[in-house]
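Predict structure. Chain length: 130.
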Amino acid sequence: MAKSRVLIIEDDAEVRELLSTLLSRAGYEVSVACDGVEGIHAFRTDPRDLIITDLVMPGKEGLETIVDLRNEFPDLKIIAISGGGLDGQNNYLNAARLCGATMTFRKPFKNQEIIDAVNDLLARKDQSES
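Prediction complete.
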């Protein structure tokens, strides 16, 4: 059985590398993008099973990225993450859910909760295909 494939869209190099390493060690095939424009291009070129996207990024930010991806790929699993300001953080995460994020997490997140969320969402995909 092929490895599930995850795309990480994150402008912060440290967070991008942390997520990439974490999910690679958990057995996923991981690719990365630095912003929404690059992420959408990467997904259209080489579709993935799930996307993890930051919300606050230069260029095309996360909410716009989620809307664009959701419109084009309605069944895509999307996890949104944000550390954007204490007051704004919940607003960003709520907005992400309204825009179509499947799950949301505040930064800093616990590594295991991200792995569990990815495992859970991809297990749902596998069950619907069997």
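Summary: The chain has one domain: 5-111.
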